[in-house]
Amino acid sequence: MEEKRRKAVPTGEPGAQAAGVKKGGRKGASGQASHLIPTLEGLRNKLLDLTTRNNLLNLSLNDKRTRRLIRFVHSDLQGTLNALCSGTTLPLIALPDPPEKELREVNDDELEAALAKARLEDPLYQQILSDSAKDKGISPALASAEDRLRSQVREELETSNKKKIRSPNLARWAEEKGISPSYELPCKSAGRSMKSSGIQTLLLGARLERVAEAIRKQAVSSIEETGNNILYLTFGGLSWNVKDRELYAPLILLPVEISNAGARGGSRCYTLRAVDDIPIENVTLRERLKKDFSVDLPELDLQEQATGLASYFEAVEAAISDNPAWSVRRFINLSLFSFSGLGLYKDLDPAVVQASPLVRQILSADLNSSKKEKTPVRIADDESVDKPEVSGKVPVLITQADASQFAAIADVMEGRSLVIEGPPGTGKSQTITNIIANALYSGKRVLFVA
Fold first, then answer.
1. 24: which of 6, 60, 144, 265 is 20 to 30 A away, CA to CA?
2. Please, what's the b/e burial string for 401-423 (b: 16 or more CB within 10 A of its CB; e: otherwise)?
């Protein structure tokens, strides 16, 4: 069946590509539609979530409430960043477990108080007590119930004491082991090689294992379901506020992968590896501060491996100097962030888009007529598809094509931009399939948008 090809879109420049076929082009005419850049900026900003629900703007540092965050201590930012960017795999290091007796010791007064409360609240004990009220002395049944309740209360207190080891206790334990418990880290520390060590956490082994495994599963699930890596190691952050609400936003993010390196000493070990050697800035934070506070964060430039982070943090401090309540925090955190719109955000950079004549034409409704192609666009005639100069433009066919479909494919491979219309069943999908096949055969990249 024959397709109905109604019009071709002139591009004003030889070699402009058909819809879907991407080819490195050259800059077109310098004339621009006045609304092009505002249009692009509007589209770009819609791709970013600028609300404080986004953890790129409001990262909760309360690791007791979530298994989506690991914080690090006893490290330096620049050394960690350099090691990961150079391909080094760094293990996550847990605090050594405190002595067992330190965890299990139960105070006698605490035990008696809890036991007295349990006696009143345990229905079985109360029933036995009531049945033994007329007995002289302590009945065997009541003695057995007392022993059961005492053992149960002691076990609950011991378990509770284990769970009550909070950060201040862990901080003191870390100091006893020669580990600095401060989350505020130096940009560079002398005499410590990151290549021969790992990244120290303020978590005990069992807790680190649970959190690391939870993060790993969520990161793997995102890659399998969407193809997007959402796991990032952050370097530095901005403590800022909105309407007296204190917020924390990361400044620099490095995409990483967390892996289970196997069991060692009875527990699983986890390692971090960078999946890209180029850290990125928090674009969402940049746009929010610019939009609401007229604060322009400096461009991220980490060319100098020795002082790159320190220089960048100093530049950020200078940019926020008019906001005395704000400060730059030198933290290293591992967490999950959604960058689903970041790729499109970068693709819509006006400097990049303006280099494409086709995109410029699509967005520019008021192009000057003098910029349009003055000569008519030649479209291969259906009757001429057997001519060598036409058939040679279509080296492969992976589905059948009649004369009109073949002519459309030849026009696209010639570099024409076409609008092809036709009723259902006229082979439009087969034509698209053949166009993509020929573009790939010619070494081009194809973007198919449905």
1. 6
2. bbbbbbbbbbbbbbbbbbebebe
Q: Which of 80, 60, 84, 81 is nearest to 70 (CA)?
A: 60
Count other C-beta atoms under 10 Å from residue 163's C-beta. 8
- The closest of 171, 205, 195 to 74, measured between CA atoms, is 171
Tens digits of residue pLDDT in 62-101: 755 567 899 999 999 999 999 999 999 999 999 998 875 5
**What is d(CA 269, CA 213) in angstroms, rounded to the nearest whole number?**
10
Q: Rounded to an integer, what distance in angstroms lies between the CA atom of residue 422 and that of residue 409?
A: 15
Detail the DSSP E strand segments found in 265-307: 267-274, 280-281
Q: What value, to the nearest 5°, has the Cα angle with vertex 287 and ends 24 and 348?
A: 15
Six-digit token pair at 43?
Answer: 């589209």
User: Contact 68/61 with Cβ under 8 angstroms?
Assistant: no
The two most distant CA atoms of the chain are separated, in Å, by: 118
Rounding to the nearest 10 degrees, give the CA dihedral for residues 178, 183, 184, 187.
80
Global pTM value: 0.63
d(CA 430, CA 207): 56
Reference 187, options 29, 23, 77; nearest CA is 77
Please give the C-alpha separations between residue 196 and each of 70, 199, 230, in angstroms, as whole numbers. Answer: 21, 10, 27
Q: What is the DSSP letter of 382?
A: G
Angle at 40 between CA 34 and CA 43, to 5 degrees: 140
Those residues of the chain that have pLDDT short of 50 are: 1-32, 166-167, 365-366, 368-376
